[in-house]
Amino acid sequence: xxxxxxxxxxxxxxxxxxxxxxxxxxxxxxxxxxxxxxxxxxxxxxxxxxxxxxxxxxxxxxxxxxxxxxxxxxxxxxxxxxxxxxxxxxxxxxxxx
Amino acid sequence: xxxxxxxxxxxxxxxxxxxxxxxxxxxxxxxxxxxxxxxxxxxxxxxxxxxxxxxxxxxxxxxxxxxxxxxxxxxxxxxxxxxxxxxxxxxxxxxxxxxxxxxxxxxxxxxxxxxxxxxxxxxxxxxxxxxxxxxxxxxxxxxxxxxxxxxxxxxxxxxxxxxxxxxxxxxxxxxxxxxxxxxxxxxxxxxxxxxxxxxxxxxxxxxxxxxxxxxxxxxxxxxxxxxxxxxxxxxxxxxxxxxxxxxxxxxxxxxxxxxxxxxxxxxxxxxxxxxxxxxxxxxxxxxxxxxxxxxxxxxxxxxxxxxxxxxxxxxxxxxxxxxxxxxxxxxxxxxxxxxxxxxxxxxxxxxxxxxxxxxxxxxxxxxxxxxxxxxxxxxxxxxxxxxxxxxxxxxxxxxxxxxxxxxxxxxxxxxxxxxxxxxxxxxxxxxxxxxxxxxxxxxxxxxxxxxxxxxxxxxxxxxxxxxxxxxxxxxxxxxxxxxxxxxxxxxxxxxxxxxxxxxxxxxxxxxxxxxxxxxxxxxxxxxxxxxxxxxxxxxxxxxxxxxxxxxxxxxxxxxxxxxxxxxxxxxxxxxxxxxxxxxxxxxxxxxxxxxxxxxxxxxxxxxxxxxxxxxxxxxxxxxxxxxxxxxxxxxxxxxxxxxxxxxxxxxxxxxxxxxxxxxxxxxxxxxxxxxxxxxxxxxxxxxxxxxxxxxxxxxxxxxxxxxxxxxxxxxxxxxxxxxxxxxxxxxxxxxxxxxxxxxxxxxxxxxxxxxxxxxxxxxxxxxxxxxxxxxxxxxxxxxxxxxxxxxxxxxxxxxxxxxxxxxxxxxxxxxxxxxxxxxxxxxxxxxxxxxxxxxxxxxxxxxxxxxxxxxxxxxxxxxxxxxxxxxxxxxxxxxxxxxxxxxxxxxxxxxxxxxxxxxxxxxxxxxxxxxxxxxxxxxxxxxxxxxxxxxxxxxxxxxxxxxxxxxxxxxxxxxxxxxxxxxxxxxxxxxxxxxxxxxxxxxxxxxxxxxxxxx
Lengths: 97, 999
What we know:
heterodimer; A: Folate-binding fold; four-stranded antiparallel β-sheet; two-stranded antiparallel ribbon; B: alpha+beta; seven-stranded mixed β-sheet
């Protein structure tokens, strides 16, 4: 069971959390401004990286807040967890919220 | 009776005899015995039959690595634990143990015919034979192979024992309480760290328990153990867990430990759990799991009486039991000499030490010479003899140049072997740590770590007691220091004359491949060296493939004794270095773990929580039949007398249409959306326009995901400018709140809005039917119930029976309807009052089944039944709900995609069988033409189908391609009995104008 550092509550066991998919996928605004292809990419296309991945977690059985995390998918080690709206601490990827 | 028990010595309590039975025969052992040592003390060596060939088997080992002596221990029919290792079963008065995989008896086992048919069963035989006839594999071959090959039987009854679970945290978790583990725990504890020390044996001490002659810090090992363990036990920052196996290493330094609490007791207290699962999160872990002796691979190496040398030593030194009267010792390691020396002192005649190594070590030879034990150098083993116990061993001599000559035949009743020790790297490997091959020692040791752990002592390949104590001390200090505890400790000083535990894996040399006798590599799965050679001949090269093909290392012992020998044979046979062959993954659990301890408290009532509405007991007392909806128990129907469901539902439906029905709608999800940003939030979430909804009014809301497909629906009431009462489907409440929170937190954090689940705060009593107003009118205060004041889709506050009331005028039945919301605690009282008030109006309680029929008659969809995650609002005729002028809402952009507007989309329609008599099957397919054969041209499917008491014939809802344009057409529903002709209709079968609803 992973040990996850909620940025609001501190370290808690994985069973208090739910997984939220890839992080930093910004919803286009206004949605009409993007092409059908870009909208489909927003809806359906996600990276599945081998290595460091920015992803969302929710401390659903705790403070109930969403936050972001950098996790190495090959080792399950977390490099960092950080609040929504904050940029990736390692400067990688797109920095949008 | 106790002829094999030495007169003195060992750690058993000679003042406490214990009676037990094995296969129905009574024996006597001593307190402190395992089943294995107690049976050996009675001269019993035959303990089991092998998995595949049913060969007679005895004890190979004295520890948890035991592959042969698997027994069933039964307290009663339900308390029957199969496949326990006799070496780990502590005896108690009245213990009843049974051997396995034999019929009719252990000594005369009919299944042993497979031993003589062995040429038919080579490795992978089930891939090659039994191929014809095709059907026979499942019906005939597989059931019989499974019956013949096997382990013990699972108990038939439900497990009556209790199991506990505990989460724990510590600074340093030490696995294994041998010399290294004890030293590590002592050093870490002295530094101030919180320490948990666990060990799989009943008594802590590990291999030290077999070394009574060792001197540590000037005292003998027993005294040192007593002082060290006693001191640890006194420290508040130390938890000692004997009888506790660390079976799994999980991510982020969480380890699973299984503590056995009551299996060793003759009369366990009824409230004592059988086992306890510890889920320990450790900041640092010290793996002091020791090393396991390797058997030697030679023909006939599995007869009862052929045993690891360290095991024989353990039985003598720890249990005071002689494993035979005349032993031959096979030395692939100096450790065999240590056993030979101890056994000779202990009264076992050692005929000879046959050393299989090219170069025996000088200290070992000198020790043997001093003790007067004959040493045969350059030996190998050609055969053994003896049916149920070894009788003699035929040695061979390896001549210079490698040819094999026949050697002498030595009579013996015990053949003790040592191929050297293999470090137990299982947990390190489970934690994704890397392994390093040591060519000089010819074994793997832990390499780079992935978790916060370190190995100590024999577990990382160190040799000798002094090294283990020194290394354990350093590991304990380092682990504590990594947690911020500074300390110092002096490693205990050892005075002992130790022999090396090194050896070399692989098979002993044999003259060619002529000998048919089996040289076992994996005892538990009956894999021989010839099986491995066969796999290589057939082209398997990777050890992972060879493992799967031959099943070597795949038994419950996880290859503890076989793994390195198999690697050695494959490496030798393919002329590769061992690291090139690779190593198979060590799987958890280290030793088998009961399902009970993993399930823990999650059994029976606790397996899945049950949610009951406030009025549950009332419905239950009225004989309601319940159905599960999510975790909820919902009343499905209320049968009267001998009514079946069909009759009850028809009566309930007629009552609602004709008079009044009473329905428990408390399970509906309820979310309060509150704040200055509430309307904007609702506008963005739901398709509807909420700006135009006045406080006191309600609207049917449709929720899409951003992909444009219907996610949930429900009535939403605006209670105030900044307050919405959102209802969701019963099963969708949690995911709707999750979706709302996701967008609130992640997309629109600027909106001032708060979301609160209020599902369980309200009891919801639906009163539906033409008499509904008359029924509730006498009970309600503060609300004008007239159609003019409280129109359909309105909400008002008042009181009912003195309780605060939130009254909705809504209808899911198509009749005049109210939904009485009162605080949950008032639910039953108000329900009973409504029921009493309704008696003169013919009020009838109805369940979810009638509710479904009534809503289908009105063409109201149920999300998840009539929709399937690919359905847009327009597909089900709900385009009217969409707020067209809104700039954005979830799914709006997706609804504009061309595919969402393309012709050919499935649309909600009604279906009636042309003869009005056939009840369609939900899920049935719809086709345009009769008489099709597969593959048919499917144009739709039935989503809901009921007998309609109101219409007097069955009705159905269906999703059909371009369905609305097909109204009036005849389509077909192909069924096994032939096509059913159906007429496409509007999905609304009853009161299309809504006269009843608005009454």
